[in-house]
Amino acid sequence: MSKTPNQQLRIIGGEWRSRRLRFPAIDGLRPTMDRVRETLFNWLQFDIEGARVLDAFAGSGALGFEALSRGAKEVVFLEKNPKAALQLKDNLKTLQARNAQVWAGDALLWLADNPEPYDLVFLDPPFGQNLLQPALQQLTLLPGALVYIEHESQLSPDLPAHWQQRKRKDTKEFSFALYEVGSQD
């Protein structure tokens, strides 16, 4: 099976609507599909403006770029693959986005060393690598924060009891859901 050296994703809404960004063809890198992003950002339409966003396991950066395009105050992209991280930086330069940064390294290590809270966290780790549960355990979030989780359909992550599910959709291959962090009392 031959792969093209670069692939493209399209930003769906906001300031950069219809802009196309490149991302490298890397095994396991699967940008969140347009229809899933459209659903997610419909769920988030009143929560993005001014939000501090963490895009852990960023990959192509589809979710983080969409958030920036729709008015997020800041986005931190975490990406372990050096080629993908470099492309994220190039895409930020192309868009002239100054309110974002890319951390090229292991998301779990970053989460352990940076316990600062975010308003919105995207957790869409590579499938089949058992990264979701450790990432969930590393998060530091304040009440009212939102967490988007995308995972294999057969996976049932152990979520904190004080998280309330806002929305969820399931397909044969994967599930995606949005949670709101409640208070722990």
UniProtKB/TrEMBL annotation:
It is an enzyme of class 2 (transferase). This is Ribosomal RNA small subunit methyltransferase D. One of its GO terms (molecular function) is nucleic acid binding. It holds the Pfam family Cons_hypoth95. It comes from the Bacteria. Keywords: Methyltransferase, rRNA processing, S-adenosyl-L-methionine, Transferase. SUPFAM superfamilies: S-adenosyl-L-methionine-dependent methyltransferases. Belongs to the methyltransferase superfamily. RsmD family. The gene is rsmD. Its EC number is 2.1.1.171. It catalyses: guanosine(966) in 16S rRNA + S-adenosyl-L-methionine = N(2)-methylguanosine(966) in 16S rRNA + S-adenosyl-L-homocysteine + H(+). InterPro entries: DNA_methylase_N6_adenine_CS, RNA_MeTrfase_RsmD, SAM-dependent_MTases_sf. Specifically methylates the guanine in position 966 of 16S rRNA in the assembled 30S particle.
